[in-house]
Amino acid sequence: MANEGEVTSFLDTFKIKLRFWGVLFLDNRSKNLQALLDLEITRLERRKIIESLVVSDYCEGPVDDEKYEERKLWIFGKSVKGQDIYIKITLGIENSNVICISFHVAEHPLNFPYKKN
Questions:
Q1: Rounded-to-integer distance, Cα 21 and Cα 101, Å
Q2: What is this structure's pTM?
Q3: Are 102 and 46 in contact (CB under 8 A)?
């Protein structure tokens, strides 16, 4: 588990890279597209949700990516229209867009170690 400073640093880097290079959403995964339909949100709204991530949304990470060893995955959660959304993101590779691997309704309860009640 990352400490709050590490999460802040990751999010700062992620958001700078997102603004410069953009984000690639892996919409070839059916549950990611289904989330847009179920939540009745647009792709632009999804991007704004990603841009709004803060330390208290942190759940887990960094964890190794099974497919690409050089990438580290970070898991966050956001409440959207009363549903907890599971969000898995990575910085991707250098000089390229950030990647949102997962954006769907959480299949299990999410743990928020830095969320204040």
A1: 16
A2: 0.93
A3: no
